User: Fold this.
Amino acid sequence: MNRLPWWLGALLALALIAIGGWLTLRPMASLAALLLLIVVGLLVAGVAELLAPAAERAEEDPRRRRFRLLRGAAYILGAIAVVAFTGLGVRVVIIAVGVSLIVGGILDLLEARASRGVERWNAALGGVASVAFGALALLWPDVSVILIGVFFGIRLILLGGRLLGRSVARARGRDDEGRDTPRTSGRRAWLRLAGNALAVLLAVALVATSFVIRRGAPEPDEFYAAPADVPAEPGRLLKAEPYTREIPEGASAWRILYTTTRDEGQPAVASGLVVVPTDQAGDRIPVIAWAHGTTGAVPGCAPTVTEPFESGAFFNIDAVMENGWAFVATDYVGLGTEGPHPYLIGQGEGRSVLDAIRAARELDDVELGEQTVVWGHSQGGHAALWTGMLAPTYAPELAIEGVAALAPASNLPALIDNLGNVTAGELFAAFVIDSYAAIYDDVSYEEYVRPGAQPIVEEMAGRCLADRRTLISVGTIFALDRTIWNGDPNRGALAQRLEENTPAGPIEAPLLIGQGADDQLVVLPAQEAFVEERCAAGQQVDFRVYEGRDHVPLVEPDSPAIPELVEWTQARLQGEPVENTCG
Assistant:
């Protein structure tokens, strides 16, 4: 056989177009289907490249034929790699397709040296685009899970279209050998050139965007590194230095590094922030211990690294200073310091709060009073509740006058169930599974996250909410067509650990729980169920619901919850009677 039959070429072309179209339109429908179609697509593309030279005119440059043969071999080797390492799941797809795109692009660039005119530019531009897309596939694993099928699918469609055009031309007998006429061939070459030019522009834009986004990633400086000699005793101040970022006029601030403990009494180091009214720095003033909301789950996500107040949803530092109170805010373990971060893990969060208060009392230039009121929102509300539970036994010397938890993540099983209904709720789910898998030996990614979503979840969990790369995570979330979970997450070891970290123990200090009626993340029915359980257990609770308030708007400066929180705190510091809404 001296050439590929036109009908066989047409069938190969239609197969490439069909596979490419499916991958482009449904890249996340099924990991098994993605693996299968990537393998079939690589094999068909390889066969098409290997057999295509036999249908070309005899005088074609042998070097160009050699490059086509090499490309075909690269595609077939990529298919073999996917089959051989299927156990590695979607990661091997990313690597195999990314490498095949890069190798194919390099071969295109080499082929450009053996070509002339428009074909040289076609090969060069196509090679640049292919290398760029392959590099992006390897650089952004979570995006690649979505786009690898799209990128490879488009390449298959283009290859299939070229092969189909050649086959149709031969079937119509445009000349004796089935070759295009010079006019038709030239027109198709220019169309390919336009397509390749657009592909290069898209690749350059994506590469430039990736560099801009990566440059914005927050990173802790040397202050957050633990010294060589760290005391075993929790609550000891290790470092302190003046802090000026976003500190209001009339206030002085220090960031601190201190000792604390994780679960099971394991020593750890955490960072935090202390702010006091400058004119009262020498007085023994009451303390507001703030537990911030979700900022992320890895080093670099600490409010003192990113934005000291807004990143943790604290918008009312002026109100604290105006009342003459000191502000002590933990970053928790693992957000400025070495991880893992105990995200929604009560012991680690609560101890970070209590030990921050202890360490702040060791500052040379600050005199803090004995009275302390704990505030927290969202994740910080969960931490505040645990702080109240732990204080009598873990830090009995601290005078906790009250605990105020605003939209607290109190009912963890209900929170996990609701995340699928929340816009970008997968971000919070990623923080949960990543933290729990890192801290608990009986919780694993493999059991709870479906294989195709594992790279996505791992990348999401490694980014802070203040990190511009989180935009990539949000875009990836919207591209998902299924949940990240492998079945129901509220089962087995994870369900047990969530129950363990639900703040269901007694709190001796007066307790205020505030909840937005329109909260989409921590929903009102779940909060009401938690409060009812605490009331039934004998806990006194002042439970307040704020109409028209969603999750973050509950703690914004114009929220009615803020003046009520300040008034409630003043009453606690003055020893006034406590309101109990349990009935």
The radius of gyration is 30 Å. DSSP finds 18 helices and nine strands in the chain.
